[in-house]
Amino acid sequence: MKKFPDIKEDDEYWFSMSDLKEYDLKTLPENLDIIIDSGIEEKDNFPVTQLNRIDNQLKLGVSKILRPEEFWKQKHTALQFATAIVNGLKTLKANNLNIDDADFQDDGAEDGICIWWSLYLPLETSISQIEKSILKSVEMAYNQALNYMEGLSSVLILGKDSDEYLEKLKYIAKIVEEQGYNPIIIKEKGDLLGEKVIQKVLRYGLQSKFVIVENTESSGHLYEVPHIVKMAEKITIVLQENGKGATWMFEDMYFSLRTAKRFYYDNNDEDLKNKIIEAIKWANLTFEQLCEYQTKELPWLKEK
Fold first, then answer.
1. Does the pLDDT value for residue 70 go beyond 50?
2. Is residue 78 helix, strand or coil?
3. Which of 20, 73, 203, 245 stands the most exposed, by the fewest C-beta atoms within 10 Å?
Protein backbone atom coordinates (compact mmCIF):
# COMPACT_ATOMS: atom_id res chain seq x y z
CA MET A 1 0.00 0.00 0.00
CA LYS A 2 1.07 3.58 -0.63
CA LYS A 3 2.39 5.86 2.09
CA PHE A 4 1.09 9.38 2.45
CA PRO A 5 3.63 12.06 1.55
CA ASP A 6 5.61 13.79 4.30
CA ILE A 7 4.00 17.18 4.95
CA LYS A 8 6.08 20.02 6.38
CA GLU A 9 3.15 22.43 6.63
CA ASP A 10 -0.57 21.95 7.05
CA ASP A 11 -1.99 20.92 3.70
CA GLU A 12 -5.13 19.54 2.11
CA TYR A 13 -5.66 16.70 -0.37
CA TRP A 14 -8.85 15.65 -2.15
CA PHE A 15 -9.59 11.95 -2.56
CA SER A 16 -12.39 9.70 -3.61
CA MET A 17 -13.06 6.74 -1.34
CA SER A 18 -11.71 4.35 -3.99
CA ASP A 19 -8.46 6.37 -4.25
CA LEU A 20 -8.06 6.31 -0.48
CA LYS A 21 -8.12 2.50 -0.47
CA GLU A 22 -4.64 2.51 -2.01
CA TYR A 23 -3.08 4.19 1.07
CA ASP A 24 -2.03 2.99 4.50
CA LEU A 25 -3.84 5.20 7.01
CA LYS A 26 -1.22 4.48 9.65
CA THR A 27 1.14 6.66 7.61
CA LEU A 28 -1.29 9.62 7.61
CA PRO A 29 0.47 12.72 9.03
CA GLU A 30 -1.47 14.59 11.72
CA ASN A 31 -1.20 17.88 9.81
CA LEU A 32 -2.71 16.52 6.60
CA ASP A 33 -6.40 17.09 5.82
CA ILE A 34 -7.98 14.47 3.57
CA ILE A 35 -11.19 15.62 1.90
CA ILE A 36 -13.38 12.75 0.73
CA ASP A 37 -15.62 14.40 -1.86
CA SER A 38 -19.00 13.09 -2.99
CA GLY A 39 -18.50 14.82 -6.33
CA ILE A 40 -15.41 12.75 -6.99
CA GLU A 41 -17.10 9.64 -5.63
CA GLU A 42 -20.20 10.28 -7.76
CA LYS A 43 -22.49 9.07 -4.98
CA ASP A 44 -25.25 11.56 -4.24
CA ASN A 45 -25.86 10.15 -0.78
CA PHE A 46 -22.22 10.20 0.28
CA PRO A 47 -21.37 13.28 2.37
CA VAL A 48 -18.29 15.42 1.93
CA THR A 49 -16.01 14.27 4.75
CA GLN A 50 -12.77 15.64 6.17
CA LEU A 51 -10.41 12.95 7.46
CA ASN A 52 -7.70 13.71 10.01
CA ARG A 53 -5.44 11.70 12.27
CA ILE A 54 -5.32 12.60 15.97
CA ASP A 55 -2.82 10.36 17.77
CA ASN A 56 -4.25 6.83 17.36
CA GLN A 57 -7.67 7.96 16.23
CA LEU A 58 -9.25 8.99 12.96
CA LYS A 59 -11.48 12.05 13.08
CA LEU A 60 -14.11 12.20 10.34
CA GLY A 61 -15.77 15.57 9.88
CA VAL A 62 -19.02 14.61 8.11
CA SER A 63 -21.09 17.33 6.41
CA LYS A 64 -24.37 17.32 4.52
CA ILE A 65 -26.38 20.02 2.75
CA LEU A 66 -30.08 19.99 3.63
CA ARG A 67 -32.07 21.60 0.85
CA PRO A 68 -35.67 22.76 1.32
CA GLU A 69 -36.98 20.67 -1.57
CA GLU A 70 -35.83 17.47 0.17
CA PHE A 71 -38.40 17.98 2.91
CA TRP A 72 -41.58 18.75 0.97
CA LYS A 73 -43.00 15.33 1.90
CA GLN A 74 -42.52 16.00 5.58
CA LYS A 75 -44.31 18.29 7.99
CA HIS A 76 -40.99 19.77 9.15
CA THR A 77 -38.84 22.44 7.54
CA ALA A 78 -35.15 21.97 6.77
CA LEU A 79 -34.30 24.36 9.63
CA GLN A 80 -36.38 22.31 12.08
CA PHE A 81 -34.75 19.14 10.77
CA ALA A 82 -31.22 20.57 11.15
CA THR A 83 -31.96 21.68 14.72
CA ALA A 84 -33.35 18.23 15.50
CA ILE A 85 -30.24 16.54 14.06
CA VAL A 86 -28.00 18.55 16.39
CA ASN A 87 -30.18 17.78 19.42
CA GLY A 88 -30.55 14.14 18.40
CA LEU A 89 -26.79 13.67 17.98
CA LYS A 90 -26.26 15.07 21.47
CA THR A 91 -28.27 12.08 22.67
CA LEU A 92 -25.86 9.74 20.89
CA LYS A 93 -22.96 11.54 22.58
CA ALA A 94 -24.66 11.08 25.95
CA ASN A 95 -24.90 7.36 25.18
CA ASN A 96 -21.09 7.23 24.87
CA LEU A 97 -21.01 6.89 21.09
CA ASN A 98 -18.08 8.52 19.37
CA ILE A 99 -20.06 11.29 17.67
CA ASP A 100 -19.47 14.91 18.67
CA ASP A 101 -19.35 18.56 17.55
CA ALA A 102 -22.74 18.56 15.79
CA ASP A 103 -23.78 21.96 14.46
CA PHE A 104 -25.27 23.64 11.41
CA GLN A 105 -25.20 26.86 9.40
CA ASP A 106 -28.19 28.26 7.54
CA ASP A 107 -26.96 29.71 4.25
CA GLY A 108 -30.39 30.77 3.06
CA ALA A 109 -33.15 29.16 1.04
CA GLU A 110 -31.17 28.78 -2.20
CA ASP A 111 -27.99 27.31 -0.71
CA GLY A 112 -29.69 25.19 1.93
CA ILE A 113 -28.46 24.37 5.41
CA CYS A 114 -25.05 22.83 6.02
CA ILE A 115 -25.09 20.33 8.88
CA TRP A 116 -21.95 18.66 10.24
CA TRP A 117 -20.66 16.40 13.00
CA SER A 118 -17.46 14.57 13.96
CA LEU A 119 -17.12 10.80 14.03
CA TYR A 120 -14.14 9.15 15.78
CA LEU A 121 -12.75 5.74 14.79
CA PRO A 122 -9.61 3.74 15.71
CA LEU A 123 -6.58 4.32 13.47
CA GLU A 124 -6.59 0.68 12.31
CA THR A 125 -10.12 0.96 10.89
CA SER A 126 -10.28 -0.27 7.29
CA ILE A 127 -11.31 2.02 4.44
CA SER A 128 -14.42 -0.05 3.76
CA GLN A 129 -15.42 0.22 7.43
CA ILE A 130 -14.81 3.97 7.35
CA GLU A 131 -17.15 4.25 4.39
CA LYS A 132 -19.82 2.20 6.18
CA SER A 133 -19.38 4.24 9.37
CA ILE A 134 -19.82 7.53 7.52
CA LEU A 135 -23.03 6.37 5.85
CA LYS A 136 -24.24 4.84 9.11
CA SER A 137 -23.68 8.15 10.92
CA VAL A 138 -25.85 9.92 8.32
CA GLU A 139 -28.60 7.34 8.84
CA MET A 140 -28.32 7.69 12.62
CA ALA A 141 -28.39 11.49 12.40
CA TYR A 142 -31.58 11.47 10.33
CA ASN A 143 -33.23 8.83 12.53
CA GLN A 144 -32.31 10.72 15.69
CA ALA A 145 -33.79 13.90 14.21
CA LEU A 146 -37.07 12.16 13.40
CA ASN A 147 -37.15 10.62 16.87
CA TYR A 148 -36.55 14.02 18.42
CA MET A 149 -39.32 15.71 16.44
CA GLU A 150 -41.83 12.91 16.88
CA GLY A 151 -41.40 12.79 20.65
CA LEU A 152 -39.27 9.64 20.99
CA SER A 153 -36.48 11.78 22.43
CA SER A 154 -38.77 13.72 24.75
CA VAL A 155 -38.49 13.59 28.53
CA LEU A 156 -41.43 14.50 30.75
CA ILE A 157 -40.40 16.34 33.95
CA LEU A 158 -42.81 16.26 36.91
CA GLY A 159 -42.62 17.88 40.33
CA LYS A 160 -43.69 20.94 42.27
CA ASP A 161 -43.97 23.74 39.71
CA SER A 162 -45.01 26.80 41.70
CA ASP A 163 -42.82 29.86 42.41
CA GLU A 164 -39.15 29.01 43.06
CA TYR A 165 -39.79 25.28 42.61
CA LEU A 166 -40.48 25.87 38.92
CA GLU A 167 -36.94 27.22 38.60
CA LYS A 168 -35.57 23.86 39.77
CA LEU A 169 -37.65 22.06 37.14
CA LYS A 170 -36.33 24.50 34.54
CA TYR A 171 -32.76 23.77 35.64
CA ILE A 172 -33.42 20.03 35.31
CA ALA A 173 -34.88 20.72 31.84
CA LYS A 174 -31.75 22.66 30.89
CA ILE A 175 -29.47 19.73 31.78
CA VAL A 176 -31.81 17.30 30.01
CA GLU A 177 -31.66 19.45 26.87
CA GLU A 178 -27.85 19.61 27.05
CA GLN A 179 -27.91 15.81 26.93
CA GLY A 180 -29.82 15.96 23.63
CA TYR A 181 -33.41 15.46 24.78
CA ASN A 182 -36.54 17.53 24.38
CA PRO A 183 -37.65 18.39 27.96
CA ILE A 184 -41.36 18.80 28.72
CA ILE A 185 -42.67 20.67 31.77
CA ILE A 186 -46.44 20.24 31.96
CA LYS A 187 -47.09 23.75 33.29
CA GLU A 188 -45.48 25.23 30.18
CA LYS A 189 -47.73 23.27 27.82
CA GLY A 190 -51.13 24.63 26.80
CA ASP A 191 -54.34 22.98 27.98
CA LEU A 192 -56.92 21.37 25.71
CA LEU A 193 -60.60 21.88 26.47
CA GLY A 194 -62.15 18.63 27.63
CA GLU A 195 -58.80 17.12 28.62
CA LYS A 196 -58.29 16.33 32.30
CA VAL A 197 -54.98 16.99 34.04
CA ILE A 198 -54.02 13.32 34.33
CA GLN A 199 -54.90 12.83 30.64
CA LYS A 200 -52.53 15.68 29.76
CA VAL A 201 -49.77 14.13 31.85
CA LEU A 202 -50.32 10.75 30.23
CA ARG A 203 -50.39 12.27 26.74
CA TYR A 204 -46.94 13.79 27.18
CA GLY A 205 -45.65 10.89 29.28
CA LEU A 206 -46.54 8.24 26.73
CA GLN A 207 -44.67 10.08 23.98
CA SER A 208 -41.55 10.44 26.15
CA LYS A 209 -38.64 8.03 26.23
CA PHE A 210 -38.59 8.28 30.01
CA VAL A 211 -39.90 10.45 32.85
CA ILE A 212 -38.11 12.48 35.54
CA VAL A 213 -39.88 13.16 38.85
CA GLU A 214 -38.47 15.76 41.25
CA ASN A 215 -39.70 14.28 44.54
CA THR A 216 -38.30 16.64 47.18
CA GLU A 217 -41.52 18.58 47.82
CA SER A 218 -45.16 17.46 47.81
CA SER A 219 -47.21 18.41 44.77
CA GLY A 220 -49.64 17.03 42.20
CA HIS A 221 -46.99 14.55 41.07
CA LEU A 222 -48.02 12.36 44.03
CA TYR A 223 -51.25 11.68 42.12
CA GLU A 224 -49.50 11.48 38.74
CA VAL A 225 -46.74 8.99 39.62
CA PRO A 226 -48.95 5.87 40.05
CA HIS A 227 -50.52 6.53 36.64
CA ILE A 228 -47.32 7.28 34.76
CA VAL A 229 -45.04 4.75 36.49
CA LYS A 230 -47.34 1.85 37.32
CA MET A 231 -50.18 2.05 34.82
CA ALA A 232 -48.25 3.46 31.82
CA GLU A 233 -45.10 1.52 32.85
CA LYS A 234 -42.74 4.32 31.84
CA ILE A 235 -39.07 4.23 32.77
CA THR A 236 -38.90 6.74 35.62
CA ILE A 237 -36.06 8.66 37.26
CA VAL A 238 -36.86 10.02 40.74
CA LEU A 239 -34.64 12.90 41.90
CA GLN A 240 -34.73 13.64 45.62
CA GLU A 241 -32.71 16.02 47.77
CA ASN A 242 -30.78 14.33 50.57
CA GLY A 243 -32.66 14.38 53.87
CA LYS A 244 -35.94 15.38 52.26
CA GLY A 245 -38.82 13.73 50.43
CA ALA A 246 -42.42 14.32 49.38
CA THR A 247 -43.99 11.06 50.60
CA TRP A 248 -43.46 7.49 51.76
CA MET A 249 -46.54 6.30 49.87
CA PHE A 250 -44.70 4.83 46.87
CA GLU A 251 -41.50 3.90 48.69
CA ASP A 252 -41.87 0.21 47.83
CA MET A 253 -42.04 1.12 44.13
CA TYR A 254 -38.23 1.14 43.96
CA PHE A 255 -38.15 -2.48 45.15
CA SER A 256 -40.97 -3.89 43.05
CA LEU A 257 -40.34 -2.04 39.76
CA ARG A 258 -37.02 -2.30 37.93
CA THR A 259 -38.09 0.57 35.66
CA ALA A 260 -38.09 3.14 38.51
CA LYS A 261 -34.99 4.30 40.36
CA ARG A 262 -34.30 7.08 42.85
CA PHE A 263 -31.21 9.29 42.77
CA TYR A 264 -30.34 11.41 45.82
CA TYR A 265 -28.57 14.74 45.33
CA ASP A 266 -27.04 17.45 47.53
CA ASN A 267 -28.61 20.90 47.53
CA ASN A 268 -26.37 22.44 44.88
CA ASP A 269 -26.58 22.72 41.10
CA GLU A 270 -23.36 20.83 40.38
CA ASP A 271 -24.36 17.70 42.28
CA LEU A 272 -27.88 17.84 40.85
CA LYS A 273 -26.41 18.06 37.33
CA ASN A 274 -24.13 15.07 37.94
CA LYS A 275 -27.00 12.99 39.30
CA ILE A 276 -29.20 13.88 36.29
CA ILE A 277 -26.47 12.77 33.88
CA GLU A 278 -25.96 9.54 35.87
CA ALA A 279 -29.72 8.95 35.93
CA ILE A 280 -30.07 9.47 32.18
CA LYS A 281 -27.38 6.86 31.57
CA TRP A 282 -29.32 4.43 33.76
CA ALA A 283 -32.59 5.21 31.93
CA ASN A 284 -30.95 4.62 28.54
CA LEU A 285 -29.41 1.34 29.70
CA THR A 286 -32.80 0.21 31.05
CA PHE A 287 -34.45 1.17 27.75
CA GLU A 288 -31.83 -0.75 25.76
CA GLN A 289 -32.25 -3.83 27.99
CA LEU A 290 -36.00 -3.69 27.47
CA CYS A 291 -35.56 -3.49 23.69
CA GLU A 292 -33.10 -6.38 23.74
CA TYR A 293 -35.50 -8.51 25.78
CA GLN A 294 -38.42 -7.72 23.47
CA THR A 295 -36.50 -8.65 20.32
CA LYS A 296 -35.47 -11.97 21.88
CA GLU A 297 -38.69 -13.01 23.58
CA LEU A 298 -41.68 -11.50 21.78
CA PRO A 299 -42.57 -13.57 18.67
CA TRP A 300 -43.64 -10.56 16.60
CA LEU A 301 -40.44 -8.65 17.43
CA LYS A 302 -37.90 -11.45 17.31
CA GLU A 303 -34.84 -10.66 15.25
CA LYS A 304 -34.80 -12.41 11.89
1. yes
2. helix
3. 73
